[in-house]
Amino acid sequence: MPLIIPIILITPAAVAIYKYRDEIKDRLDEIEKDIHVDYKVHRVTDGDGSANADGKYIRCLELDHDFLAQNKDWQLMSLGRYLSQLSPGGNTTPQFLKKHLEIAIGKSLIQVLGKQYGSALLPVLGSDSVDNTVSKMATNMASVITAKMLVERAEDDPLQDIGLWNLSLPEMTALINLHRAHSSTGIMARSSLEIFRTGEAPGSGPLYFDRSYYEDDDEDKNDGIPNPFIIEKHFEEEIQSMEEQMKKVHGSYDPNEIPLMGKNVPIDERFLPDLHFGWGDARCTHTQDECLKNKLMALLLTKLGYNTYLCITDKEDEGVFTVNYKGKDIHHPEEFIVALLDSDHKVEVCPRATMAQFGVAICAKEKDGSFTNIPFSAQVRTGLDGADESQPTYFAAPHGGMNVIIRGPLIGENKQCDLQFYLTLEGFTGYFADHDADVPWLKRIQLADSYNRQDTIRAIRMISIVSTVFNAIATDMNLPFGGYGLLGMCNDSAALIDYALRNECSTYPLLSTGKYLIHVVTYLEKYHDALKAHPSGRRFAAVEDMEHLIHAAVNLPTDLHSSPKLIANTARRYLSTYKGKSVFQITNDSVKVMEETLKRFEKYESSA
């Protein structure tokens, strides 16, 4: 993943570190020499983690009071509350320190804001836009922080939450195609189709199945998975092999342990004391054994999905991947799901969403050694304002996909396997293990009722088709990041399937652009005709599903354009995605505005 690490300069506008990184490094070295060696910012609390009252409070990603009241077992605070606790140390004059603190604190903040969020939004916005957007937000934060710490000026008090992105969805439209036209970044070493074939994305953790990801002299890794893969023989063998790898990586392994989410790493003890990257004391949603089975099942279904590409393009002579279960050879994911359903397993499929983290989690270490979690999100303007046009609405950037939940003998008693299908920033569209931090602000929101048996099978088959189309387009057009941000984001790949099944979807936002949706339709038509002419009639159901997917791609709404015709639909999908209590106050305020917007515009919707 490319790193976008902008830095704050004391000018009216922010400047990206990629452009001026050498000059900035020299300036920071100079600042380090000027500032007292023992100088550092202090964090002052009143004993319960709240801000020390000094007449100013920084509003930044403020948390909802009702949410906090409902989750008293958790130590939570907003980023603004943490920033309000910072106080200067040393004897250096405020006039001298203000400009230097803006640089230093801005630099540290941008490491939090820009490293992951910048690269995640890069394909959508283009690098310049991301650098400027993130840098301006960090400039704003740094100015407010230093004003609060050093200069008591009323005009520095923010009128609104300084953690909000001053960028709306409609403003992204031109930037998307502009970035595609001029960008040469993000060309991957492996094509999306090649990743699709291997079944897993590079960088997905310490456990890979494909030996080709490793150096030739690395003898500690396994040699890939067998083909054919006999469930009764190889499933537990692969789990045991993964357990051995886990022992080598972590030193120990307990299959029934619910592990902590990882180490908490200090960000910058000098200027952001006690602030850490990490999940604090949070644990995973799954046991270690469940996590391994999530990963293995995601790999098997993705590799089976690649057979759909081989079938459609008449390349099956290259060698298909086979799973054998209860003596029957299986070549497609829906066949595997049917086999599981017919052998005392339960399979649940439905679209779900949660708040996207983009790999960022932050927390503050307290004096007693405990950690206070600081929920973090990219808050982006929807482009829809309230009736008086002074109420902008925001959304916490979501992560969504098509969830597949499997329970039964293969997974283990009282255990479940959680997978999710989506288009990923890592460069391909496929299945992924769906375990995460078990924290109350990341609970999954179900965007539709779980599908019945027939639609479950259809959804799994459509996942293979959409994977084939998205990965083929990304490969043929050499799209950066596997088409992420151009073909859509994680939400869009699942929404396309949900719309094809239900003739509607409840996902917000939808970010597929018209230009690339046309490519999706073109590829679906091409594959539809090729598969229809295939000498084997066993894939006829896939032909019918392609027709539904074409209809969905043509009619799927987009949130990159604000239109009175679609406002009610937009508000309805927004409310579906963000229903319930969000951890962020701005999201809940936006929900109220969207409810009013829906009442205003739904009476004008066409009944046709």
Automatic annotation (TrEMBL):
Domain of life: Eukaryota
Protein name, as recorded: Uncharacterized protein
Taxonomic path: Eukaryota, Sar, Stramenopiles, Ochrophyta, Bacillariophyta
The organism of origin for this protein: Chaetoceros tenuissimus
